[in-house]
Every structure is written in structure tokens, then in C-alpha cells.
Amino acid sequence: MNPYLRLLARPFQYYFPYSFKHSKEFYQWLDFVNTSQWDTPEAIAAYQWTQVKKMLDHCYANVPYYSALFKRLNAHPDDFRSLADYEQFPLLTRQHVREHYQDMIATNIDPAVINTYNTGGSTGIPLKIFGIKSDNTIEQAFIANQWARVNFKPKDRVILLRGDVVPDGKLWQYRPSSNSWIFSSYHLSPVFIADMVKKINKIKPKYLHVYPSSLWVFANLMKEQDLHFNFKLTAVLCGSEKLFDFQRDFVESYYGTKCYSWLGLGEQTILAGECEHSKNLHAFPQYSYNELIDQDERIIRKPHISGEIVGTTLHKYVFPLMRYKSGDLASYAEGPCKCGRNFPLLEDVQGRIQNMIVGSDNRLFPLTAVFFGQHLEAFNKVHKIQLEQSKAGIVSIKIVKGNNFDQQDEAKFKMQLLTSTDHKIDFSIHYCDDIERTNQGKHKFLIQHLDVESFKFNQED
Ligand SMILES: [Zn+2]
Description:
By secondary structure, the chain is an alpha/beta fold. The protein has 13 helices and 21 strands.
């Protein structure tokens, strides 16, 4: 074949720097976020109340679910005169959304521009969510502000390891729209790892944008074959899942770079990320109005008390979620942060309530504490690991062994687990050749068949 023709047959963007283009709307929002991130607490509270009130008026006038709710409460949006009043507004559960989603779509927005999404179901059942293009543009602007904290610029080259399916069973694919390379999360095995690393060493990306669980598997495979990157990563962007300390420690030391983690939900009721100075998650107050509530639905205002994250969307008019209980647990950190942002700070985000295992005494143990809060040496010697629970007090663990995992490791591992669960869980270990991923391509640590929300999560009360 004529080499020139071969050249033409390659994708255009392969040879020419791709000019990444965002919409005018994106840059307007980015300007807004960049400026308002330094607002005073008073300015923030005033902005939040203005947006919440706008949303209440909109819901009353245009969203059948909320019109009916106001009627049932014999209330009117004007009855709410402050954020303190708004604390009386009824909470919204996932169950409500699941049952009433059709009535929660605003009737004053053209159905032709409305898209449907499924959020990853923390309880195993996905939730249907609706949105318009602007909702994503707004979210992208907020995320761009977060990533700028680790110097990210929209044109920077990125490797994605986020459960995307690469067509034709290939290991990677270039995505010109974002100057990124998608790598398959479905080929993370000793057979393919060397080829993937070789390719990444040619691409020399500045960032990896990953599901932490997938990257953890990836990095372990690299380590086992003594593979290394021949370039310096600026940072690893860790989204969509909790980044556990053991994952961060390993990735940061193996790649010699920083992990940047944030919490975002498909429901768009919170977006919270680390800053330049702290691992506490800074929840954007211009994005959503957030509260933490305890089991009796009392509002938590003090630091270090674990509660459920409640969020109100401030911009999403097509499918407004008002005081939505996300099922994620977190506690406030002490502020203010030295970065100067007057944002609510979250520490110890435990992720979804469903990410807990249940003891024989019906006590809940967060995976964070049992598995990831301590340094289990066995983790460095396994390829993959997955827990499954169908009965309180019993957890079965599937393990894909690495080269050096032996009997002693198993015994030590079991003992550590028993100790950290107060001997209230019987762990059985099964070895296998591979573990299936979820249909979103994640390496799920826990398959929880129990309805954890019906158990108590905070035993101190
Ligand atoms: Zn900060």
C-alpha cells in the first residue's frame, strides 16, 4: 500500500493536535464558578436561598409531583421565606423518585430535548433520571473548576479507564471529542497488561481518569509484571467511586503522582472535591444545597457525626430533586479550609449505605472500616477481590490470587477481618480465575443482597 494512502486512512486527529472546543455557555458557567468560589458565607447563603426559592416556585407551577405535594401540605412556595423554613420541606427518597418519576418531569420544557439516564443503582436497582444538555454543560464547568486544582486544562491528553466498552473487542480507542484514549476495563488481566502499558507509554498522557477500582486492578497487574510508565503523570483523576486510602497510597507511590478525588452523583444533588490543600471534599454550594441528616431525620450541624447526604438541585429545572436523600453517608470536617473556599467540607465519605456488610447482631460495618481503613497486606498479593452477602453474619469472599498469595496470607487476612468486625461475621474465602464486572464495567467490591437501609448504620445512637 502507498504509505501516503495509509497515512490518510489513519484518523485525522492522530496527526493533528485536536482543538478542544467548549460552548459559550460552558465558559459562562466556568467564569461564574471560578469567581464565586471565593464568595463569603453570607453571599453563598443568599445565592443558595435565591436558587432554592426559584426552584420551589418552578416546582409548584410546573412539576406535577410537587404541585400535588404542596396541595397535600396545604402550602405555597411563599410560605418558605428562608433556608431555615426550607428545612421543613419533606425529604425525597429514592423510592419516591422510582415510583413518581413521570410526574417529576417539568411540563414547561419541550420533551424533545429531554434525555433519560440511569444512575448506577446503589441498591442494585438503577434509578431513572432526566436531564437536558445544559445540565451536563453546567456540571462540566464545575468539574473543570475542580480539575484545575491539579492544573488540568481542557486540551490535556487523558487516558480513560472508566468502564467504557471499546468496540470490536479492542483494547483501546481514541476519542477525539475530548482528546482522550479509552482503555478497556474488560481486559484487565495478566495477558493484556503489557500491551496496554506499552501503548500508554507511547501516548504519554498527562492524566488518567479512572474508576478507582479499575485502576487499582490495573496498577497491581503492572506491579506484578514490573511494568512502569516512562513519563510523569500530572495527576490521576478518580471519580464515580470512593477512592479508598489503600488505593490512593498504592497508586500514588507506584506512579509517583497525586490522586485527585471527588464525589459526584448522577442525580446531580452534590458535587464535592478535594482542594489544593486538603483531602476533605468541598461541596460546591453554587451547585446544590446540601444537608446531612441523622437516622431520625434531624439535621446534623456539627463535625465528625455521620449522616446521610441530602441534596437539592439548584439548576436542574427539568427534573428537580428537592431535599433528596441520596443514600450516601458522610460527616462534616472542621472548617474553614486554608484554601479560602467557604464550602461545606465533608470528611469520611463512606459511600452508599449499601456499601456495608451486616453482622450476626444486625450491626452494620462499613467496607471502608473493615477492609480499607487498615492496611491489609493481602491486598498487595491479590488481583481481584469481591464480597457477597445474602445473610446477616455471613460474607463470602472471592479472590483471584496473585503470584505470592499463600496459606499464611489467607490466615492473616481472615484474622484481620474477624477482628475488625468484632467476630460478628463469618468469612468464607473462595479462589477463582476471574471475577465478573458489573454492566458498567466496574469491579464491584461488594454484591449486597440484603436491604441494608433497613438496618441501623450508627450504633452509637
Ligand atoms: Zn480547601
